[in-house]
Amino acid sequence: MPYTVSQIANIVNGEVIGNPEVVLTGFRAANNAKEGDLTFAEKEQFFEQALQSGASAILIDKDFKSDKKTLIKVKNVRVAFAKVIELFYPESNPQPGIHPGAIISKTAFIDSTAYIGPFCVVEDNVVLKRGVILKGNNFIGEGSIIDEDTIIYPNVTLYPKVKIGKRVRIHSGTVIGSDGFGYAFDGAKYIKILQIGDVVIEDDVELGANVTVDRGALGSTIIKKGTKVDNLVQIAHNVEIGENCILVAQVGIAGSSHLGNYVTLAGQVGIAGHLTIGDGAVLMAKSGLMHNVPSGEKWMGIPAQPDRQMKRIFICMQQLPEMLRKVAELEEKIKKLESENKLA
Prior knowledge:
- The strands form six sheets. A twelve-stranded mixed beta sheet has the order 8-11-14-17-20-25-28-31-34-37-39-40. Strands 9-12-15-18-21-26-29-32-35-38 form a ten-stranded parallel beta sheet, with no helix packed on it. It has a nine-stranded parallel beta sheet with strand order 10-13-16-19-24-27-30-33-36, with no helix packed on it.
- The N and C termini lie far apart (97 Å).
- It has four helices and 40 strands.
- The chain has two domains: 3-88, Udp-n-acetylmuramoylalanyl-d-glutamate--2,6- Diaminopimelate Ligase, Chain: A, domain 1, CATH 3.40.1390.10; 97-305, Hexapeptide repeat proteins (UDP N-Acetylglucosamine Acyltransferase, domain 1), CATH 2.160.10.
- The longest helix has 37 residues, at 307-343.
- It is an alpha/beta fold.
C-alpha cells in the first residue's frame, strides 16, 4: 500500500523537510534503495549512501540537509524505522480455523478466532484465546493457557501448565516448561528431584529460536512483560527475568537467579545460580558472573567484575609480556652483581 511522506510523518511524529506529497511504496536499506522507497540514515556514511541512491525520502534524526531528497526528521530514527516497516510489509497470518491434521482434546477451549496449523497437538484443558496462532507441529501441554494475539512458530513445545501472555512470539525449536536440572546425590547415584512448578511468560515477550525455559522446581519460572530473548538461550528453573530485558544469543542463566528491569545480557553471558542483577545493569559479552550486580552497573570478564576494574586488569594483562621481559633482565643483572660480589 502506498503512503505519502506526509502520512508517514504523521505516523512517526516527524517533521517533513521537502515535498510532503511524495508517494512512497516500499522501504529499503540506504545502499540499495530505489525510486519510491523510503530509507533511513543514522550516520553520515549512510546518509551519503541514501543521497546517492534512488530513494524518494529519508528518515533522519540528525541535522542532515539535502536539496535533492525529501527528509523526515524524527526523534529516534530506529524507532521510526520499526514503526514504518510494518506498514509496507504487513505480516501475513492464516485465517482462523483448525487444520484437519491437528489433534485437539475435547476439553480444550479454542477461541473461534484462533488458528491451529497441521500436526499440532493440543492437550486437555488447554485455553487458546482470541487471535492465537499455532503455525504447525506444535505441542501444547495439558492445562496451558495462551493469551490473545500470541504467535507460536513451527516445532515449539509447551509442557503442561505453561502460561503465555498477550502478543507473545515464540520461534521455532523453543521448549518451554521442560524439567529443571534438579538432582540429589545419595553418595552412590543422582536421584531426580521432581519439578512440579510452572512457567509464566507475560505480555509482549519474544523468544527466539531454540530457547529453553525450564519449569520451576516448586514455584514459577517467570519472564516479565516486554523482555526479548535471542536464539539459543537457556533459562533455568525458578529464574525471574524483569520487564524489558534484552538477552542476546547463547546466554545461560542458572537456577533461581533474579534479573531486574531493563537488564542487558550480551552474547554468551553465563550467570551462576541464586544471584540478583539490579535494574538497568549490563553484562558485556562472554562475562561469567559469580556475584550480585547492583542496579545500573556494567560488568565484564571472567569472573565478571565492574567494567572499569576489569579494563585495568585487561591493560595489565596486555603489559605482562613486557613486564616478564624486564623481570628476566633484572634477574640477570642481580645474578651478575652477586657473582661480582663473590669474586671481590
